[in-house]
Amino acid sequence: MQHVKVKYSEKPHLKEGAGWWSRTWYNWRVWRGNHKYNRYDQQRKSVTIRLLGLLGIGVAIIAYSMIMPRPSGTVSTKLNQEMAFGNQGANVQLTEKSFNEDSGLLELHFKFTGNNNESTLSGINMKRYKLSFAGDRYIQSGQSEYHIIPTSANTMVVQFEKLKTNFQDVRVLFEDKTVDTADINIATNESDSSVKKTQSSDQLATVIVNNDDQLHMNNKLDVKSKKQLVIAQTSDNIQEQQRHIKKDKAAIKKWQTAIDEQEENVKSIRVQMKDMTDDEQDQASESIETYESKITDFKKNISNAKEDISDERNKIQQLEKQKTKQQNGQLNVPKLSE
What we know:
- By secondary structure, the chain is of the alpha+beta class.
- The chain has three domains: 8-67, no CATH class; 83-179 and 201-224, Sandwich (Immunoglobulin-like), CATH 2.60.40.10; 240-327.
- It is built from four helices and nine strands.
- The chain has helices spanning 20-67, 137-140, 226-272, 278-327, and strands at residues 83-85, 90-100, 105-113, 129-135, 145-150, 155-161, 169-176, 205-210, 216-217.
- The strands form two sheets. Strands 1, 2, 3, 5, 6 and 9 form a six-stranded mixed beta sheet that branches.
- Residues 318-338 are annotated as: Disordered.
- Keywords: Membrane, Transmembrane, Transmembrane helix.
- The chain crosses the membrane at residues 47-67.
C-alpha cells in the first residue's frame, strides 16, 4: 500500500497528561513535520502546474495547426501573370482569386490569350483545353467539389466548394489537346531510321493559389450560377473597354499638348533665324525638321487613338447587345473537353 504523507499535527502522538518536556518535544516535532509536509506539498503543486502547462501548450499547438493554414513550399502564381501551355502558343493568366472562409468557397478567374498577347479569339479554342487539379488533400480525395464555368470565348471561372479553412494550396493544370501537326509522321524505311525527329512535348501550365495573405478574403462570396457569372464577365468587358477609351482620350490630350509645344519651338526658331549666320540657319532648319517630324508622328498617334476609340465604342455596343441576350438566357459560351 502506498504511503501518503500527512501533516504531523494530524497524527495523535501526544498522550493526555503529558509533562512540559513531552509537550515541548511534541510541538517541535509538529513544527518540523509540518515544515517538511509543506515543502513536499509545494513541490507536488509545482510539478502539477508544469505538467498542466505542457499539456495546455500541446493542445494549443494541435488546435492552431488544425485552424490555421499550413505554409506551402511553393510560390503562389501572381495575378495577370501569363503562362504558356500547349503547342499552339496559348497563354493563361489568373485575373482574380477570392476565398470565403465561412463556406469554404474558392473562386478563381482565368483569361486566355493567343500568340500576339491579344484578347481576340485567334488561336483560342477552350473546347480543346483540359483542366486537372492537385494540391490540397481535400481536392485529391474528392471531398471538395469543383465547377468549371466558361464565361466568354476566352475567360472562365473555377469554383471550389467545401474547402477547409486551413487548406494549404490549390493547383490548376492547363493542357491543350489540339493536335500538333509537327508531330505527325509517316512510316519510313529502316535506312532512314538514323534520322530521328524530336517530338515536341505539350507544355503544361500550373497555376498555384496558396492560402496566404495574398489571397483575397470575402466572406460574402457565394456560389453563383453560370448565367450570373457570364453576365458579370460581360459587364467587366464593358468596363474594360470604357477604361481603354478613357486612357486613349488622356493620351490624345497629352499628344495635342506636345504638338502645341513643338509648334511653339518651330515659331521661336523661325523668328530667331533672321539674325543667324548661314551655318546657324542650317542647324536651325534641321531642328525645325526634327520638330515637324515629331508633330507628324504625334498627329498619327492621335489618329490611331481616335480609331481605337471608335472600335472600342463599337465593341461596347456589341457587348451591351450580348449582355441583353445573356439576360434573356442566350449565354452562347463554349464547352470544355472532359
